[in-house]
Amino acid sequence: MEMDDGTMNHTAARHRRLALTSILGLCLACASVLPAQTPASRPAAKSVAPIDLTGYWVAVISEDWRWRMITPAKGDYASIPLTPEGKRVADSWDPAKDEAAGEQCRSYGAPGLMRLPTRLHITWQDDNTLKVESDLGMQTRLLHFGDWKPVAGAPAWQGDSTARWELARPAGPPGEAPKFGSLTVVTKHLRPGYMRKNGVPYSANAVLTEYWDLTKERKGDQWLVTTVILDDPQYLQFPWVTPIQFKREPDGAKWDPTPCSATW
Q1: Who is most buried in 3, 42, 144, 205, counting CB within 10 A?
Q2: Which of residues 7 and 247 earns the better pLDDT score?
Q3: Residues 24, 106: one domain?
Q4: Which residue in 156, 41, 144, 48 sits closest to 108, CA to CA?
Q5: Contact partners, residue 199, CB within 8 Å, separation at least 6
Q6: 237 contact partners, CB below 8 Å, separation of at least 6
Q7: Cα separations (Å) of 155 from 161, 190, 193, 209, 246?
Q8: Contact 113, 190 (CB under 8 A)
């Protein structure tokens, strides 16, 4: 029997609808027998950690020494892509005024803290929260995994950080623990501060993204390497990317808690 083109198209469309309906029904049936993945059923971040970040770490200043080891001169914002407004704010920096206002921790917020010549002490506060303490400035960052939601409140120097493991799973049996991976951290809700000790600013709308990796040398030294991206359209022409390195220490013998200061 011959059919014209209109009849053929109508028949083909009806067949496609029937096929899609069957596939949808099969998917719904399969979904009904699969357990829903709830936050309670997900493994704790600590249990699936592909790398061990816990312990003591010391910053190794192998680049940008003049901006990280001493207080740079006012107006020295070389290498940072500041907007005109960012330059204006940096040029108005007054450390004595910061001290008098109780704002001496402005360079110890998350975007500036990791670039300071500090030591870090990293521990698990609970199964889904990494705690990162600094001896310089005596700051504490909390890196929250899973479905943690920021708590309403005033912005803070360390902001609100959400973290996730980037897992590289082994070619082994199902359920085998990952052997490789890294950590991604995104920090928002920041109290405005300085990305450099001499008043180079970041705003309350800044977003800090960090990629944490571990490397190990043949002689056994272990390094924490973080790639930091600061995005702040108010004060930066484009995101500022910088690497930071820490070396693992055997213990906390050199841990030296020191309060914030506007200058060194």
Answers
A1: 144
A2: 247
A3: no
A4: 156
A5: 74, 89, 90, 92, 93, 94, 95, 106
A6: 81, 82, 83
A7: 12, 5, 11, 17, 27
A8: no
**Rounded to an integer, what distance in angstroms lies between the CA atom of residue 153 and that of residue 243?**
31
What total number of domains does the chain contain?
2
- Whole-number Cα distances in Å, 198 to 37, 73, 108, 131: 48, 7, 12, 27
pLDDT tens, position by position, 26-58: 333 333 333 444 555 689 999 999 999 999 999
Residue 98's domain spans which residues? 55-249
198 and 167 part of one domain: yes
195 Cβ partners below 8 Å, 6+ apart? 80, 107, 111, 112, 115, 201, 202, 230, 240
Same domain assignment for residues 75 and 19 = no
pLDDT at 89: 98
Is 176 buried (19+), middle (13-18) or exposed (0-12) by CB count in 10 A?
exposed
Residue 187 has which token pair?
Answer: 């920090």
Residues 206 and 142 in one domain: yes
